[in-house]
Automatic annotation (TrEMBL), chain A:
Keywords: ATP-binding, Cell membrane, Membrane, Nucleotide-binding, Translocase, Transport. This is Polyamine-transporting ATPase. Gene3D superfamilies: P-loop containing nucleotide triphosphate hydrolases. The keyword Nucleotide-binding applies. Residues 5-238 form the ABC transporter domain. Transmembrane segments: none annotated. It is a peripheral membrane protein. It comes from Lentilactobacillus sunkii DSM 19904.
Length: 277, 265
């Protein structure tokens, strides 16, 4: 599989602070959903900003879809990447929903007729077309994140980065955003990187990378990673609810063969246990 | 407070609503300038008649206009009183020390009152029939000629529209901070002026910190969405000059000329 993002031996620190990354390397495979998880201050969000060229590396190299991240390529790279940030309020630039979706298109000097078509189709894609006249004050957090996603879809990028995009939403809003991104990813064959605290969000990924203190601790499929709760807890992350439940059952002598199970599979497994007895 | 800026716009589909914002803005200016040329009953009557026509065509009920005047009523009364008591000449009805009331001062007071009323009403028509966003766009169009002198018109317009967009956000935050500080025992409403100013500090500091955080995050988000500068952008919304605007300008210009004829020289 092709690596759409290659991070090679990067070093970075904020002014007057210790090194955040020391010789870090990560590859992101095209068409995959990669989750980056780790504690606060582990440098996850910084990584998103480095990939998009919003902040500058000390040393090393990042290659996005064949282009090296530097001053010359920066706008081509930003055309390939859309980022949904954490705070819904702070990425809403336009005065109304449709103006906000148009913002990125205006920056690229798209002609007006085309712009109106693209805004309409993008808002319909995320189910926000009926809300096009609304001002941000009259939208919920989840709706604002939908608009942010529409703004990204409008630019048809190859990569979407969710930078803790669901952390300020309620559980239902969170699930709706994840479902929406899953749908858009499939329809447009996108690569998704989700940077998150939320283990349940990470569990929807194809591959999980656990970052701690600027280095990769673990890199595997979610099933394998979340099976080993003790390891997760040793780096200060709480395991997903399902893993915690399995662990509690194991203590009572019920063996699950130590595998990570999502909600549905867990329910199926428990039903089976009950019927066997 | 939020009503002051945003509750003003009344959605509608009248002639005035559908005019382009830049021409409404300029007509408003033009009307105010013409008001300062009026100096007798005929000129004021002509302008009042024009205003009544404009108000009727805006399709907005008169109650909203009265609401627009209410906050300014004391300023109007004060100015009119000054005009009545201090202007000299004419037949004096009453005087006491430096104060006097004459037939001329009463007429002048009346004119000042009408002048205030006209200015407030015409600007109320503008804000009631135009969204803040459209006004920001109108300002951009009106100021366009200044580009020749390297005045950053587009940047100004973008700043204006982002500022308008963040007013409700900051209002909400102020409300939250206000309640948070109240729950800690800060009293905002009573005490001496000095005390009240002191009480505002724990309100303003978090509000400003929040605003600066918003600005920083917003600029990152704007950059990530491909923003470079405000010059090299296309525009999603465009307000075209329409026949309505030409007709309105024609009427206003005629009235302006009429006022120049009717005024006392």
């Amino acid at each position: 599989m092709k690596d759409i993002i290659q991070i090679k031996n990067i070093t970075f620190n904020y002014p007057d602070q210790p090194l955040l990354f020391d010789q870090l390397s990560i590859d992101v495979h095209e068409g995959e959903w990669t989750a980056l998880i780790g504690q606060n201050g582990s440098g996850k969000s910084t990584l998103a900003r480095l990939i998009d060229g919003l902040i500058v590396l000390k040393s090393g190299q990042i290659v996005v879809d064949g282009l090296i991240v530097n001053d010359d390529n920066i706008f081509d790279i930003r055309n390939k990447i859309g980022i949904v940030f954490q705070n819904p309020e702070d990425q809403f630039v336009g005065a109304t929903v449709e103006d906000d979706v148009a913002f990125g298109l205006e920056n690229r000097q798209m002609p007006r007729e085309e712009m109106h078509k693209v805004v309409e189709s993008s808002l319909k894609e995320v189910g926000m077309w009926e809300f096009r006249d609304r001002i941000p004050a009259n939208l919920s957090g989840g709706q604002k994140q939908r608009v942010a996603i529409a703004g990204i879809v409008a630019l048809s990028p190859k990569i979407i980065i969710l930078d803790e995009a669901t952390s300020m939403l309620d559980p239902r809003g969170r699930q709706e955003i994840l479902d929406l991104v899953t749908k858009i990813k499939q329809e447009n064959n996108l690569t998704v990187i989700s940077i998150t605290h939320d283990i349940d969000e990470a569990a929807t990924a194809d591959r999980v990378i656990v970052v701690n203190k600027g280095t990769i601790v673990e890199e595997d499929k979610p099933d394998n990673i979340f099976g080993d709760i003790r390891k997760l807890e040793s780096i200060g992350l709480s395991a997903p609810f399902t893993s915690q439940l399995i662990m509690a059952l194991e203590k009572r002598g019920i063996d699950s063969s130590s595998q990570y199970l999502n909600d549905k599979r867990l329910i199926a497994w428990i039903k089976q246990l009950v019927s066997n007895k | 407070m939020s009503n002051f800026l945003f509750g003003r716009y009344l959605p509608g589909n009248s002639w005035v609503h559908r005019m382009s914002p830049q021409s409404k803005l300029m007509l408003c200016f033009f009307f105010v300038i013409v008001i300062f040329f009026a100096n007798n009953v005929w000129t004021y009557a002509t302008l009042s008649l024009l205003l009544i026509v404009v108000v009727l065509m805006s399709g907005v009920s008169i109650g909203y206009f009265l609401k627009g005047i209410r906050p300014l009523i004391w300023l109007i009364i004060f100015t009119v009183l000054l005009q009545i008591l201090f202007s000299s000449g004419g037949h004096v009805y009453w005087h006491f020390g430096p104060f006097s009331v004459s037939d001329l001062s009463l007429i002048n007071g009346g004119f000042i009152f009408v002048r205030f009323l006209l200015i407030i009403m015409i600007s109320t028509v503008l804000t009631l029939t135009t969204t803040p966003l459209a006004i920001a766009d109108g300002v951009q169009t009106v100021l366009k000629p200044l580009k020749k002198f390297h005045f950053p018109v587009d940047t100004l317009a973008l700043m204006l529209s982002i500022a308008l967009r963040f007013v409700p956000t900051l209002m909400d935050e102020m409300e939250t901070i206000l309640n948070a500080q109240r729950s800690r025992g800060v009293d905002f409403g009573s005490g001496s002026l000095r005390h009240r100013i002191q009480a505002a500090v724990p309100l303003l500091v978090p509000l400003f910190t929040g605003a600066i955080n918003h600005a920083e995050n917003l600029s990152t988000a704007m950059e990530a969405r491909g923003f470079t500068d405000s010059e090299h952008r296309s525009k999603y919304r465009v307000y075209k000059w329409q026949t309505k605007d030409t007709i309105s300008w024609g009427v206003f210009l005629l009235v302006g000329i009429l006022v120049l004829f009717l005024r006392n020289n």
